[in-house]
Design brief:
heterodimer, A: alpha+beta, four-stranded antiparallel beta sheet, 31 strands, globular, B: mainly alpha, Globin-like, 21 helices, 68% helix
């Protein structure tokens, strides 16, 4: 009996009238956990009952504690007939199982009914007494922390990143069970809600077990999804990144600092530095350095090092097509292995690879769901890798053996892994998985960014290697290092134009870079970024079974290719050279496929300037055509020029001779660079690249092409004062103020015209997305200047003629006056690190001689030209110096944190005396002036409801997260049989979304929190039948509940007193 | 091809004050879009008509969902469905309970019943306030009336606490409730020149001085019903006009005081007995509910109109009433000084307020 759960029902308010005669309600409450139920007394004739019940005690296994929700049902007592249910509250008690998270759940919860929505509120108190259980073979994983946040959470530091964890559980969908024919919709909905709650509890517990096995204590970037497969069942699956996190004392909070001002001191470097006291077991020997962390696929031992090409026919599933990607797999794998074997590669790279292999390649899936990393962790980025596969759903016969689904995902993951290898990378970051289901066809998709990571974070206690680590460190500054190619330039996996890095001039970079991660905070960016979307509709014939699946998988590569071309064209048009946060969604409907690619375009200073777009006609002789082309060309050139101005892209003009122009080919040239391994290599034959031309060429050969160009030019710019991006924050904006507004918007468009063309559909779809954006700008105009961040578009084809677009994003205000400025901390920190370098010089000089001896020689052989050897060697030294300096800085910070803070602050003040307030903002991400307004707005009036902020980002501007209270993962169903009366389908969904927000806020407030970060709406499935006056909607949301305080420049004491002022209900849990 | 569904939900509920006003004013979505377009909001953010329509629909839906809460404003503060900053809650409530003077003037003193509600379309046509808005305002009156009917304690304070209204608006509502309860006649042609604010002021005077609450503040309906005992006592004032000596004495005292101070002195002297009879008769008749209803029309007919035809200025009026009231204290045989002051205090300020064009 390792746990005792206690619940107390205090009171209710705003209950609905259940007895028409008296206009009152005789309410009582049933409290249920597992199979035990308690009841309160009936509180007669009151809409605001006071039960003040005793403590109901449940003695349960911690396994149950993790799986089961506490179920509270409010009923109206009826003497003569059956008691009427008013509604229910499900409370996930998982946050109480973690010692560091919440200690009590107490507050007002909305009473929710799947038919009537929210019907009043109930005040509940829940506590858990957990007994220590030392059983090694336990089934529970209490104490493992879960975070939706896809970066290291703000008040922790990553001692070790263990790697990928995944799990899936399957069950029959209650909606499709025979009993559903005889039970009420309410009973059916509740059965479903309860089942999914149970399944996600179970899933979380199982993942937790895996994490414990790996020696970790937390899952970061936890992504849980539902597949409503209809007849064939219900799948709940999750992926995440297992980590060992150390809690930082709330006073020091260097994480917030390092995130925003990462240049000050890459935390990673401190860890293995030989001079370190080594008091912290940062890379503790939790794990014996055996065969690597166990993964769920231990049963498949062969697959780890060289995945064999998939055989086209799988015995385990009725796989209709072996997925387009199979075709590409074989050549890629060959190339990848060639690269990683390092036959022709420079010795340095080989060494680096060999080293990282020990850490990573023994893992079955070196995947990371994180999108942003501690400084120093990310070494190089290769490009986007993605894989899709079309499957036919089959009834899940045995829920306890979810092997078919597991095998499907394993295939996909193997493919991703081999793609990454082909790019010369050993890891995949920013990894995510998704599905799209229509009837019995299911598209499984996975994507991520191939990358090379600094292995130190993952190595299991091999300090001897760690001490010599710096020798193999890439000698590149953090602001451009990640752009340098990880693959061999002589053995490139795809055609690409390489140039020497425009920032450091030492390493090769591609001309364009696509990634799924957030822009590394230390990256050097020119100008601002913007949201870039490619949208595509493809009609397909209605079909059944295998024919349908084949048709879809035949279409997929073309869609990906076209989305790509669009992205590339739009990127060029905006004069940018890199995409971050790329997310490509392909959604399947009965008679069409929708593709939506969203990303944030930026101009990376390290990458070459993009060439323009050149229009070429097919028939050069035709004069009128020529004229036409000229006008289009002019419009495009104008657009590019305008965009340059709009996004303030003024790259520093570098003189060619200064660099020595290491690459003989014309620099401006750019081609369709498919840095992310496309699903099919066949497509390279369709390559749009046109040899040695200067600019990216668009050929006008038919009307379609004209249309394409028109659509390219019709993308509206955000109105003045607005920016938009789909990454965490907007590249190029640094001075966020505390105004935020999270929102969800859903639009469904009905196509009435039966015989639509692809072009017509494209136009409709594009307009739909563009109009949505316009609506946001208009609605949020009072927040100008502001930026829409983390714009997350989800498309679906719920019915034959419907297109549904769901968007969740956050609008954040920023200080307009300083948008032009680069943050002052960059040059300053550079300066300071330089001075520190000088300080360290004598020390380092002797320490470094040995490494300097080996390094230049190995380095040079990896570089084709030998003209600039000396400068290179010097820069290598510089790199290692810088490395050590930051090590030293880190040490200094650990030892004398306050001193460092103080000195940095003053140096900044002197830099920008004109804006004293802004200087404060820069040294801490939390502005003084604005948080004051935040506090005042909170204290305004005597509202009894805690204000809960919500954001899809991992942080709140101007506010510091001091405690993570646990994951919020909620699933709701709402149904109505009086659609018209509820204001039609819009009214129905509007109130449902508002209700979901309200329930999330209430749960967070009850945990003692005042904000939700990394919030996302995973699922919003709407089914309607206006003729029957019915509709049903399912929503799944998740996020991290946190306590946060406004950031002050003072130390902890001050911020602690703040808690009391800002979040009265959060105080008990704060310390 | 059509947008089948279009919703936008913010964690903090987004409300545009301009659209809220249009919604309160009973504009349809399409009319509201037209008004907004004319207002030039489109230029603000490069919006199109579609965007405006979508936004207006969203906002209207939000307001409709909020309306239930606005009916009991206290709920708005501790409901969980909408996260609305407190200052915005205040604005929402204040605006929702605000009313058009033209409309309130029409229903002032009428019974807040179904019958009156049926006539709202006529009122709407007459005042050019939309029917929807008329209904909201009427329902607000009725709701406030119903709630405070059963409450003890001061009327204005009750309204303010239950509906979280500003002091000014709470006082206006108190006036409306008071008028509706006593069914004062305000609709006659002769009373048309009076504004709602004139009546609201008078209501305030009556509530503060003539109701039960003026003497005892813990009775039910204390501020709604007139003090019956007081009304009885008013009959005693009749002596001022029935006793010939007293009347003459009163007149000479007033005339002595006024002589040379006003151009209208002659008219005042000539009309004294008429005017005095008028005021005292009003007082004496107030025991009849019917005459209470005619209180304002009587004041106008018996006092204000005669003075106006004699072209008294407002200053004249003030001077006359002050001396008229004060002189009664000097009358030896007049024993009802307290009642007289309580009566004349209100009459004086009411007439001051009502004496205009």
């Amino acid at each position: 009996m390792p746990g005792k759960l206690k619940a107390k029902i205090v009171a209710g308010r705003h209950l609905p009238v259940m007895d028409r005669a008296s206009d009152l309600t005789d309410a009582f409450v049933e409290v249920k956990f597992g199979n035990t139920t308690f009841k309160t007394d009936v509180c007669p004739k009151s809409l605001n009952p006071q039960w003040n019940s005793e403590w109901f005690k449940f003695e349960v296994d911690d396994e149950d504690l993790q799986d089961e929700p506490l179920q509270i049902t409010v009923l109206d007592h009826d003497t003569y007939s059956a008691n009427d249910a008013i509604g229910k509250v499900y409370i996930d008690i998982d946050p109480l199982l973690c010692t560091e998270a919440a200690s009590v759940i107490s507050g007002w919860f909305p009473i929710y009914d799947t038919i009537h929505g929210i019907r009043g509120e109930i005040n509940v108190l829940v506590k858990v007494e957990l007994f220590n259980d030392l059983n090694r073979f336990r089934q529970s994983s209490c104490g493992v922390k879960f975070f939706c946040t896809t970066s290291i959470p703000r008040c922790y530091r990553a001692a070790m990143v263990h790697g990928f964890v995944e799990e899936l559980v399957v069950n029959e969908d209650p909606e499709y069970q025979w009993i559903d024919r005889i039970r009420t919709p309410r009973a059916s909905n509740e059965a479903r809600q309860r089942l999914i709650s149970l399944m996600s509890g179970e899933l979380q517990r199982k993942i937790g077990l895996k994490v414990l096995e790996m020696g970790g204590n937390a899952v970061v970037g936890y992504l849980q999804c539902f597949d409503l497969e209809g007849e064939s069942g219900l799948v709940v699956r999750a992926i995440g990144t297992a980590c060992t996190l150390d809690k930082l004392s709330s006073g020091s909070a260097p994480n917030t600092n390092t995130h925003v001002h990462p240049n000050t001191a890459p935390a990673s470097n401190a860890c293995n530095s030989p001079s370190k006291d080594g008091k912290e077991p940062v890379f503790g020997e939790d794990l014996p350095s055996s065969s690597g962390p166990p993964t769920p696929f231990r049963a498949l031992p062969t697959s780890s090092s060289s995945p064999p090409p998939f055989s086209p026919s799988k015995p385990c599933s009725r796989q209709s097509s072996s997925s387009d990607t199979d075709l590409s797999l074989t050549p890629k794998t060959g190339m990848g292995s060639g690269g990683s074997a390092g036959k022709e590669a420079g010795p340095l790279k080989t060494l680096l690879r060999q080293q990282t292999q020990t850490a990573l390649e023994q893992r079955e899936f070196p995947f990371f769901t994180l999108t942003s990393f501690p400084p120093g962790f990310l070494v190089h980025v290769g490009g986007v890798v993605s894989a899709r596969s079309v499957k036919l759903l089959d009834r899940i016969h045995n829920p306890d053996e979810p092997e078919t689904r597991d095998a499907w995902w394993e295939e996909i993951r193997q493919e991703i892994k081999s793609h990454a290898k082909a790019l010369g990378c050993h890891a995949v970051i920013g990894y995510s998985e998704s599905t799209s289901i229509c009837e019995e066809v299911c598209i499984l998709s996975a994507s991520g960014t191939a990358a090379i990571l600094n292995p130190r974070y993952m190595r299991e206690g091999c300090l001897d290697i760690g001490s010599t680590d710096h020798r193999f460190e890439e000698p590149s500054p953090p602001s451009c290092g990640f752009c340098h190619i990880p693959y061999d330039e002589l053995n490139m996996p795809f055609p690409a134009q390489l140039t020497y890095c425009y920032h450091c001039r030492r390493q090769k970079v591609p001309d364009v870079l696509f990634t799924t991660i957030d822009l590394p905070p230390e990256a050097a960016v020119t100008g601002k970024g913007c949201l870039i979307q490619a949208r595509l509709c493809r009609l397909k014939k209605k079909a059944q079974g295998e024919v349908n699946a084949t048709a879809i998988s035949n279409l997929l590569p073309f869609m990906e290719y076209e989305l790509h071309t669009q992205l590339m064209n739009k990127l060029k048009l905006r004069n940018m050279n890199a995409l971050f946060g790329l997310h490509i969604q392909i959604s399947v409907g009965e008679n069409m496929l929708l593709g939506l690619a969203s990303a944030t375009g930026v101009y990376l200073t390290a990458l070459p300037a993009p060439g323009g777009i050149q229009i070429a006609g097919k028939t050069p002789g035709d004069l009128s055509n020529e004229h036409h082309i000229l006008t289009i060309q002019k419009r495009i050139n104008d657009a590019i020029a305008k965009n340059k101005e709009l996004y303030q892209i003024n790259p520093p003009e570098l003189t060619e001779e200064g660099v020595g122009s290491p690459i003989p080919e014309p620099r401006q040239r750019s081609r369709l660079f498919r840095s992310h391994s496309e699903s099919s290599d066949e497509l390279s034959e369709l390559d749009l690249s046109h040899g040695k031309k200067d600019a990216f060429v668009l050929e006008i050969d038919d009307t379609d092409a004209v249309e394409d160009i028109h659509s390219l030019l019709t993308d509206a710019h955000p109105p003045t004062g607005f920016y938009s991006c789909n990454t965490e924050i907007m590249p190029g904006i640094y001075n966020w103020t505390s105004g935020i507004q999270m929102f969800t918007s859903v639009r469904v468009f009905r196509l009435s015209n039966a015989n639509l063309t692809n072009q017509g559909l494209n136009k409709i779809f594009t307009d739909l997305c563009e109009n949505l954006l316009k609506s946001f700008y208009f609605k949020l105009r009072s927040m100008i200047p502001c930026c829409l961040c983390h714009l997350n578009f989800t498309v679906a084809v719920p019915e034959e003629e419907l297109i549904q677009v769901t968007v969740t994003a956050v609008a954040m205000t920023f200080d307009k006056d300083q948008t032009q400025e680069k943050p002052a901390d960059k040059p300053i920190t550079k300066g300071s690190s330089e001075t520190e370098e000088q300080l360290q010089f004598p020390l380092e000089l002797c320490a470094d001689t040995s490494s300097a001896n080996t390094q230049p020689s190995s380095k040079i052989s990896g570089v084709p030209e030998s003209t600039n050897v000396s400068s290179r060697a010097a820069s290598v030294d510089y790199g290692s110096f810088a490395d050590r300096c930051s090590t030293w800085l880190e040490l200094l910070r650990l030892k004398a944190h306050t001193i460092r803070r103080g000195s940095v602050k003053t140096s900044r003040r002197t830099q920008s005396l004109a804006h004293s307030v802004s200087s404060l903002e820069r040294c801490s991400p939390l502005p003084e002036g604005r948080s004051r307004s935040l506090r005042s707005s909170r204290s305004f009036g005597g509202s009894s409801v805690t204000v809960v902020k919500m954001t899809p980002l991992s942080f709140l501007p101007g506010i510091r997260i001091i405690k993570y209270l646990g994951i919020i993962n909620m699933f709701f169903i709402r149904e109505t049989t009086s659609l018209r009366e509820e204001g039609g389908v819009s009214g129905f969904l509007h109130s449902f979304i508002a209700e979901v927000f309200a329930m999330v806020r209430a749960h967070v407030a009850a945990l003692g929190g005042n904000a939700v970060v990394s919030y996302s709406m995973k699922e919003c499935v709407l089914m309607e039948n206006p003729n029957k006056n019915q509709a049903q909607c399912l929503i799944n949301v998740s996020g991290d509940a946190v306590i946060c305080v406004r950031e002050t420049d003072q130390e902890t004491t001050a911020s602690m007193t703040n808690i009391g002022q800002t979040c009265s209900s959060g105080t008990d849990g704060a310390t | 091809m059509a947008v089948e569904l279009d919703v936008f939900v913010g964690n903090t509920t987004i409300m545009d004050e301009e659209v809220y006003q249009l919604w309160l004013d009973g504009y349809t979505v399409n009319d509201a879009v037209k008004v907004r377009m004319e207002g030039g909001v489109m230029d603000e953010c490069e919006a199109s008509a579609d965007v405006l329509l979508s936004d207006t629909m969203d906002q209207y839906r939000t307001f409709q969902m909020c309306e239930r809460l606005l009916h009991s404003p206290a709920k708005l503060a501790n409901q969980l469905l909408f996260q609305i900053p407190p200052h915005r809650q205040t604005v929402l409530i204040e605006r929702y309970y605000a009313f058009d003077d033209a409309f309130v003037r029409e229903v002032l003193g009428k019974k807040l019943s179904k019958g009156t509600k049926k006539d709202l379309d006529d009122i709407s046509a007459k005042t050019s306030v939309t029917l929807k808005s008329c209904r909201r305002q009427f329902d607000n009156f009725k709701r406030v009336f119903k709630v405070v009917e059963e409450l003890k304690g001061p009327l204005v304070e009750n309204i303010r606490q239950h509906f979280l209204l500003s002091d000014k608006l709470a006082r206006d509502y108190a006036a409306i409730v008071f008028f509706a309860n006593n069914r004062f006649e305000t609709g006659k042609r002769k009373l048309q020149y009076l504004t709602f604010q004139d009546f609201a002021f008078c209501a305030g005077q009556l509530i503060n001085n003539w109701t039960v609450g003026a003497v005892d503040n813990m009775v039910e309906d204390m501020d709604v019903d007139l003090d019956k005992e007081f009304l009885q006592e008013l009959k005693e004032l009749k002596i001022l006009i029935t006793d010939k000596d007293l009347l003459d004495q009163h007149k000479s005292l007033v005339c002595t005081a006024l002589r040379g101070k006003t151009k209208a002195f002659n008219e005042m002297e000539a009309n004294f007995k008429n005017l005095s009879r008028g005021l005292v008769n009003i007082a004496a008749k107030l025991t009849n509910t019917k005459d209470v209803r005619d209180f304002f029309i009587d004041l106008v007919e018996k006092f204000i109109e005669p003075c106006r035809s004699d072209r008294w200025t407002a200053a004249d009026m003030k001077l006359y009433l002050t001396h008229y009231t004060n002189s009664a204290h000097i009358l030896d045989t007049f024993k009802h000084q307290v009642v007289w002051d309580r009566y004349m205090g209100v009459i004086k300020s009411c007439i001051f307020k009502m004496y205009h064009d």
